[in-house]
Every structure is written in structure tokens, then in C-alpha cells.
# Entry
Amino acid sequence: MTVVVALDVGGTGIKAALVRPPGEIVRLERHATGARRGPEAVIETILAVAGGLADTARAAGETPLAVGLAVPGVVDEANGTAVWSANLGFRDVPLRELAAQRLNLPAALGHDVRAGGAAEARLGAARGVRHVLFVAVGTGIAAAHVVDGRAGGGAHGAAGELGHVVVRPGGTPCFCGNRGCLETVASAAAIARAYPTVTGDPITAADVAARAAEGDEAAVRVWRDATAALADGLLTAQALYDVADMVIGGGLAEAGEALFAPLRAALRERITFHREPRLLPAALGDRAGCLGAALLALDLLG
Ligand SMILES: [Zn+2]
# Structure
């Protein structure tokens, strides 16, 4: 049997898998990224984990045919370069070439959210839908515009920064240098920050959603502001892309209908000429990036 090696490299953890076509995970491993050790050590860990999985496959009588890597930040898919990543300390790392040499296999490099979006459009919530926007709402907010199963990266590998669309001009300062960016209001981190706690105990966005459902006034206000801002962001995206489905993933989507019901209502209120997209929860969970990396590898094989 044939498999591909797929890695989704995050700021804290690496999900690594052997994937059988067209998208079945037959082995999944989790490793620590160890980003504090510096970029050189992270690169070595990525190559060692990928090489180890290829060896594991061979030992089990499987034939690894290609390797796919997904990383965060600015990623130049055409050149196979991890251009920039704040989490990993990457600057112009030729990761595709390094992986191809180490594993002696064809290699592909992609962006984690774009890879996840392609996986949701080909294997997940929007399976078979031609025009899809995937929006990952977690610590930050990022999106992937997927057409016919492929996510566009832009001219510089930096497309899809929906989190930095300004939805509240003059609002809260964002780390990017602007004010009122979508992710200053609607990311899971921003929602948790906006909820005033008397005790100082840490609280998550899911806690805020649960308290809002119970009628806690402060939670209701924070949740309403977040869903309104997210609807503003999605309306802008729909004006640009006119997609059929919007798939919402990341930690915030785990709130389920507590998110989707008010978000659908808020989007519907704002729609004028736009066609209303279906708003769907992501189906692949935290495996989306890894499956997307596998699809990049499988696409090399034609
Ligand atoms: Zn910003």
C-alpha cells in the first residue's frame, strides 16, 4: 500500500501522519515543536519527525511516496519557502528542498490555514463545493479562499489575513500596528480578554459563550460584540469572494450553535446584494492542517 507523510507544524505542537489516498489517516503522532530552542532546532525536529514516519511506513510494508508540510506565517508555496513565521522564528527557510533532500521523496510546502481550508473543501464540511471560504478563529483569525479544492496564497504568500481587516475603525490597537482589526474583537483570545472577571480567574471564549447562554449580562455583551464583528468581517469576505460555503473552524467554532445561530442572524441582517453563504462548522477539527498537508503531497503525484 502507498502512503504520504504529512506534517502540520504549529507554534507549540506538530501533528504528523501517514495518510493513504484519498485522505485516510492510518497513523497520527503528536510531537512538541520546541520553538524556544530556535529555528534551526525546529527545522531539525520537522525533518527528523518526517523521516521517522517514512521509516515507520517502510517497516510496516507501506511505500511512502511523497511528503507534505504545512507551517504558519507567510509561506511561498510556489518556491517552497517558509518566508516568515513569528511563532517558529523562520526567515526564508527553504523547507521544501530540505525535506526532499532528507527524505529523498518529492516534497510540498503549504500554509497551515490554507492547507486546512483545502482539506475542509475536499474531505470535510464543504466536501465537493467549488467556492469555499475557510475561517480559523482561535488565538488569531485567518482565512483561506478555496476554489476547486485549491487555496490561493496571493502574490507574496500572505493572502487570507481576515483577522486584520479593520471592522472597528479607531478601535483597540492590534499587534499588527493597526486599530480595530477583526481579531481584536472576535478571536477566542480577544473574547476571553474582553470578559471582565471579578476574581481574576482565567476564562476562555467557550466559558463566555456558556455564560452568555445562561444570561450573564457581561457575557452576553461580549459575545454579541464578537459575533457582530465576525459578521462584519464575513460580509466583507463575501463581497470579495462570493463563496457558496463558509466553514468556520478553530477553537471558537467549538461553541456550536451558540456561535452559529447569532452569526447567521447577524450576517443575514447585513446582507444587501450579496448571496448568502452557508455557514458550517468545520468537520475535520485539528486534523485539517495535517490532512491538507497530505493533499499537497498527493497532488504532487498527479
Ligand atoms: Zn491587525
